[in-house]
TrEMBL record:
Keywords: Transferase. This is N-acetyltransferase. The keyword Cytoplasm does not apply. InterPro entries: Acyl_CoA_acyltransferase, GNAT_dom. Gene3D superfamilies: 3.40.630.30. It comes from the Bacteria. The keyword Aminoacyl-tRNA synthetase does not apply. Residues 15-187 form the N-acetyltransferase domain. GO terms for molecular function: acyltransferase activity, transferring groups other than amino-acyl groups.
Length: 213
């Protein structure tokens, strides 16, 4: 049977993923706790958005770490004037070694890096890490109403599998439909090549505060 993927730093050209540390609570709160991040359904939607660092620490322990089930990473920029800046978080969870599959999710980025290479390289680093560990399927999902997240998943090259109706309760008590995507190990070489081309085309470091499409 496979082992869980290792919780180790993953280093790219534009971002670095480090295992989540308690000290990351304050910079992550500053980076992602904006209404527009939660409007799309993150953590259960707007009603789940913490308004204090202590509230975010509770979210880290519950929603992100999930009692130690998830392997959680902090996303930092590499290079440029904002080198080392915390810009998001992402996780591996629902890890099923017997069936060689897991879920890549619980992802949120600072709005300042939306539309940049940050998501493409973050996903590239994580998916490569998962397949190198011997897994055969990576599952990615989003609130069916979150068109921005769904477009980002589709741009990765993930295959749309369908919509799970009334699948998860939102923080406000309503029910969400979940759009499900996946990438299989056999599909990964071609997807990775296209992601590498996207990443290489971002010829300079990501700079916070610059306007993005």
């Amino acid at each position: 049977m496979l082992d869980r993927p290792a919780a180790v730093p993953l280093i790219g050209s534009a971002v670095r993923l480090d295992p989540l540390a308690d000290a990351d609570a304050e910079p992550l709160f500053a980076a992602i706790c904006f209404p527009e991040v939660f409007t799309g359904g993150y953590a259960g939607g707007p009603g789940a958005r913490p308004d204090t660092v202590d509230g975010f620490r509770s979210m880290m322990d519950g929603y992100l770490r999930r009692g130690g089930e998830n392997i959680v990473f902090t996303v930092r920029l590499i290079g440029g004037p904002d080198d080392g800046a915390v810009v998001g978080t992402t996780s591996l969870g629902h890890i099923d070694p017997a069936n060689e599959l897991l879920h890549l999710g619980w992802t949120a980025y600072a709005p300042a890096v939306w539309g940049t290479v940050v998501n493409a390289e973050t996903k590239r680093l994580l998916i490569r890490h998962v397949f190198d560990a011997g897994y055969g399927r990576v599952h990615i999902q989003a609130d069916s109403r979150n068109e921005r997240s769904r477009r980002a998943i589709e741009r990765l090259g993930a295959q749309f599998e369908g919509v799970l109706r009334r699948q998860q309760r939102r923080a406000d008590g309503s029910w969400r439909d979940t759009a499900v995507y996946s990438i299989l190990a056999a599909e990964w070489p071609g997807i990775e090549l296209r992601l590498d081309e996207r990443i290489a085309a971002a010829v300079r470091p990501v700079v916070l505060g610059e306007a993005r499409a």
